[in-house]
Structures are given as structure tokens and as C-alpha cells.
Amino acid sequence: MKNLFETPHFLKSFLVVVILFAAFRANGQQSKPADSGYAPVNGVKVYYEVYGQGKPLVLLHGAFMTIDLNWGQLIPELSKTRKVIAIELQGHGHTPFSDRKLSHAVLASDVEGVMDYLKVDSADVAGYSFGGSVAYQFAIQSPRRVRKLVIISAAYKSEGWLPEVNNGFKTMKPELFANTPMKTAYDAVAPDKTKWTNFLEQMIAYAVVPFNLGDSNVSKISAPVLIISGDNDGLDKIELAKTYQLLGGGRMC
């Protein structure tokens, strides 16, 4: 069976970046959450884990990933000084698959719902890739809940990705994820492993729909923003520079 490591070069490169944190995780420390469970929000049950004490930091994972796969090595360090709240978005990891239509607004509302459930008024928010896009939306629709924002390899609109990546989304199929770290991580914690293909089909269908959270909305984000991007993470660096400027970067104070 064909897997993602046999895909065309441009798509292969992008998907390998998607599992970057998985490679880091292989040699990482393991940490047990001080608290974990499900928050009932917006008609679904969203899984969360809490580590450490201090100012809250919400972590939002990348597409097809779990808390452990994405953040497993970083959480032990972050939780030394922070209260880390890691969330698994709809259909990911422990959070059950749902037929509920995906949207950035709904997923961001889920994040807010988890914070409400845990009685966290505001937090720093860090999102990777898919989770970074959700983090952008969260900062737009719930600005008072975000203190600082960390965006890792993520765009707030489809044009933020290179054309090769957007074209690659259109060729993605569930079988490409066979024998990958994402499948292994999913099988380890998913409440219903038979939903794997349904979950992939839902996410892939979502990925091919163009989205744009709005230049004007991004320019109104008042929280300090740290943007992190790798050389080959699929982002269009010209568009990334524009994002930097929208957020107030490149200006003389």
C-alpha cells in the first residue's frame, strides 16, 4: 500500500514537516498530566490535559496529531513554570469523531469552551499548523481571552501556503497515512479506532476548501504575536512577511 513517503516530492516535503514534532517526540521525556478529561462544549466532548502551575498556556496541535505526538517533548519543559493546557481538537486523539461540520470559528469556540470549563479567564495560546490557524481565529473572535499568541508554521488564509501545498491538499487520500506516526498515535488513544478513515476524510475535505480569516481581522489582533516558520514548512514567505506587517511588524516605534 502506498504511504505518504511515496507521494510526489512537494506533498512529501510538506507532510514530513507536519510530523516534525513526532520526530522530536521519539527521544522526548514522558510526563503525566495533573488533570485530564472531557469538556462538554458545542455538542461535542473535547479532551484536554493539564500540566504544571503558573500562568496558563494553551497548546493547539497540528492536523492529524495528538497532544503527545505534537507536544510530548515540550510539555515537560513548559510545565516547569507554566500551567499547560493541551487540547485535542474535534476527531483528534481522545476527542471522539463527530459529523459536526468543521470550521475555524467552531473549533476556536471549542477552545474557549474548554477554558470556560477549566475556569481559565485568559491564557497565552500556541498553535502549530492546523492548530495555528485555529489560534488565529481564537484571537480574532475572543480577543480578551488571549494574552500572547505563538503561531508555528501556520497561515490565516489559504494563500498563506505555497501553491504546491494547496495543490497537494487536493491529492491527499486516507491511504497516504497508512503506517505513519499519526496512525500509530491515533490508535493508541482514540475512543473508537474504526473512525480513522472517517476522520481523515473529514479533515482532507476541510483542507481543500479555501479559507481566509481576513486581513482586517488579523490586523486588529492586539495580543503580542510570535511567528515561527521553518525554511521548508510550506508557507509562502512573501505572504508571511505581509502577515508580519499586518500584526504591526517592520514599523519604527
From TrEMBL:
> Which portions of this protein are annotated as coiled-coil regions?
none
* One Pfam family matching this protein: Abhydrolase_1
**Is Amino-acid biosynthesis one of the keywords UniProt gives this record?**
no
Please provide the record's keywords in A-Z order. Answer: Hydrolase
Q: Which Gene3D superfamilies match?
A: alpha/beta hydrolase (3.40.50.1820)
Please list the residue ranges annotated as the AB hydrolase-1 domain.
Answer: 55-155
A GO MF annotation of the entry reads: hydrolase activity
SUPFAM superfamilies reported in the protein's UniProt record: alpha/beta-Hydrolases
* Name of this protein: Alpha/beta hydrolase
Write down the species. Dyadobacter sp. 676
